[in-house]
Amino acid sequence: MKEKILEVLNENYPEIDFESSDELVDDGTLDSLTVVGIISALSAEFGVELPYEEIIPENFNSVDAMAELFAKYV
Amino acid sequence: MPVMTYNSMFFVLFFAVFLIVYLLMPRPAFRQLVIFAGNIFFYKFAGGLNALVLVAAASLILYLCTRRMEQIYKGFEAEAVSLSKKEQAALLPSYKKRTKRWLFLGIAVMIGALIYVKVGKLLSFEETAYLKDLSFTRIIVPLGLSYYTFSAVGYLADVYWRKAKAEHNWFTLFTAMSFFPTIVQGPISRYDRLMKQFHELPGFSYERVCHGVQRMWWGLFKKSVIADRITPVVGGIFANVFQYTGMEMVLAVIGNVIALYMDFSGCMDIVIGCAEAMGVTLDENFAQPFFAKGAAEFWRRWHITLGAWFKDYVYMPIAMNPRFIKRTAAVRKKSGARAAKVFSSAIPLLIVWILTGLWHGTGKDYLLWGLYWGILIIVETAFAKELKSVPAKLHINTEGKGYRLFQMIRTFIYFAIGRMITAAGCGRSLFLIIGQIAKGGKLRILWDGSLFTYGIDKKNMLLLVVSLIAVWIVDILSAKGSVRGRIDSLPMVLRWLIYYALVLSVVIFGIYGEAYDASAFVYGGF
């Protein structure tokens, strides 16, 4: 799951180093527009509908957190 | 009967008595009771008690809807205890379906009332202050309707998304909804955060009261010394657009922007200072907006709580809608990742900005205003990479102070164009004003002394310039840290000199009076 997520992220956002931090949202690496784009790309990749209440900074602060989140719905 | 506005002597006296009684209370519950009494008093003299009855009704509906949603989710929590995370995720949608009815009921009532009043005003329905006169063609415009409606919808959505807990005490919810510092112009409160503070209202703290009063007085300075000096003059110019041309019009537009900033941010300083003296922290609504590097950043610094509300409750739900995500995926497949990124941000942004325009006013000019900002931000976002490469191609140093100044002037011009769209109060406002500017001339008013004949004489102009420099310095210092913290660390004599200078400048140079048209706050009309 994590490898696949990283692959999608790097394909869509090559300019961002997703493994540089585990506070990607909190430290400002990802803004809300980018988070929307990430969810859009990952939801399409895994064919899942992510409930809105899951869209909180903690779930997008690191690739591990994203992997854990999507694992619940795949 | 005196009218209560935040910049009136009546309010200052009311708040002084209120604060003394409030701080004498021994427990948070008593302090909350004093706030409730303060809300009633404020409504009585600012919007009428009938308006408060409507807020009470709205808070009751909000209370019942959120409590019902909470009860349904309790069933989910009981069932979810023995399930894995994956099983919980599969179970949740059936419970959300049941809570959705209460969410929609609450939103329909709150937004329905807002639309009824806005459309009623558009159709020129008569306004009445009395419930007994209420009919299809007569409407009550409750004080602060646009602000508490937005807060209420946000609270309903947060409970539905399980991001906030439903309040168990209706009285606390009603007190938060009618909280007198925020009711006229915001900031748009997040009720869950506000009510949490209402349960733990702290007692007296010298530093907090001192800081709160300082901030209130600073707001009064911005409003009564600066904004109220400029507003009637530029208002007169925009009311007679055809009489003014060239430099006269350019200066009127600049004055209009400055007056609006001083008016709105001054009001926010007063209300946030009021709440701070009580021990309640409100969300900030301004963060030196004209220091912004572009349009999107400007709106993260200007009317912050409105922008944050639209982001959380309109932009994100649209962008995250499963059907919209599928559309984005189709765009990605057909036209690539870049096109998908633009599509996924542009459509929700356009909807957000059309709604933001309609929130400010229901005329064509506000629709155009919303489209203007929407398109500007979409272009800035979608072509960020290309726009960033332009200075490099032109060999411009983007790290220098000159470029920073250029960005700030550009932001000011963006905002000034936005103001021109609505300033003359008609759909053709922008073209009228630009047309008058294009007629040119009147440059000589800058040096021949006639500048002081439009309503602001030489002495008042000098006072304005000095005051604006003071605001500019405070804004620069605020961006670097707490100004009031710096004042605290000064020697006592210097500290009190600053306090006296601020108080006396408001008392001596402030413009007041019931007959004075500009004394009402600009954003109070929403």
For the secondary structure, the number of strands of chain B is: 2
CATH architectural type of chain A: Orthogonal Bundle
Number of helices of chain B: 20
Unreliable parts of chain B: 513-518
**How would you classify the helix and strand content of chain A by structural class?**
mainly alpha
Shape descriptor of chain B: globular
Mean pLDDT rating of chain B: 86
* Count of β-strands of chain A: 0
- The amount of helix of chain B comes to over 70%
Largest interface: A-B, 21 and 28 residues
Number of domains of chain B: 3
* Radius of gyration based on Cα positions of chain B: 25 Å
Compute the number of structural domains of chain A.
1
CATH fold name of chain A: Non-ribosomal Peptide Synthetase Peptidyl Carrier Protein, Chain A
Strand content of chain B: under 5%
Rg estimate of chain A, integer Å: 11 Å
Descriptive report:
The complex is a heterodimer of chains A (74) and B (526). Chain A has 74 residues and is an all-alpha fold. Helix content of chain A is 50%, strand content 0%. Chain A has a single domain, classed as Non-ribosomal Peptide Synthetase Peptidyl Carrier Protein, Chain A. Chain A is built from three helices and no strands. Chain A is globular, with a radius of gyration of 11 Å. Chain B has a two-stranded parallel sheet with strand order 1-2. In chain B, helix 8 (206-239) crosses helix 18, helix 8 packs parallel to helix 20 and helix 11 (304-319) packs across helix 13. Chain B folds into three domains: 26-202, no CATH class; 207-282 and 438-525, no CATH class; 290-423, no CATH class. Chain B is globular and about 80 Å long. In chain B, 71% of the residues lie in helices and 1% in strands. Mean pLDDT of chain B is 86; it is low at 513-518. Chain B has 526 residues and is mostly helical. Chain B is built from 20 helices and two strands. The A-B interface holds A 11-12, 32-33, 36-37, 39-41, 43-44, 49-53, 55-56, 71-73 and B 85-86, 89, 92-93, 96, 161-163, 311, 315-317, 319-320, 322, 325-326, 328-329, 332, 337, 340-341, 344-345, 348, 381.
